[in-house]
Amino acid sequence: MAIRKVQEDPHPALRAKAKPIKVINERVRRQAADLADTLESIDIGIGLAANQVGLLWRMFVVRLPEDERATIFINPEITEREGIQESNEGCLSCPGRNGIVERPQSVTIRAQDIGGNEFTLKAEGLRAACICHEYDHLDGILFYDRVTTE
Ligand code: NI
Fold it and tell me: Whole-structure pTM over 0.90, yes or no?
């Protein structure tokens, strides 16, 4: 278990596009565990993307207050977006900043787990917004790029 340092804006990794993970091996599993441990160590965090710890891999973790453990998404693809919600967001990499972002009300996401198995998950509300926020990180997009109301 290792807690990683969460990089803050304007760290260059936050603006880079993360690369697909070709082989899910022990090294990837270790990094995924570190990402989950790091998120679980931060009370206010509900999601963390690999870019935020300076790792340009397509991987993020999500843990809402009601979740016992973080869910790890490797090579995620959002396959469906439905509806609209106004999401009040902040980011562990952008301390002191928040704002309203328009997000889908629900999303369907396909990803791989740490065993390399593909899974599909449908999420709504806060979990959907969080998944979109973390997915954006993998493309170098920060939530405030999408803010309509500060
Ligand atoms: Ni963020």
Answer: yes
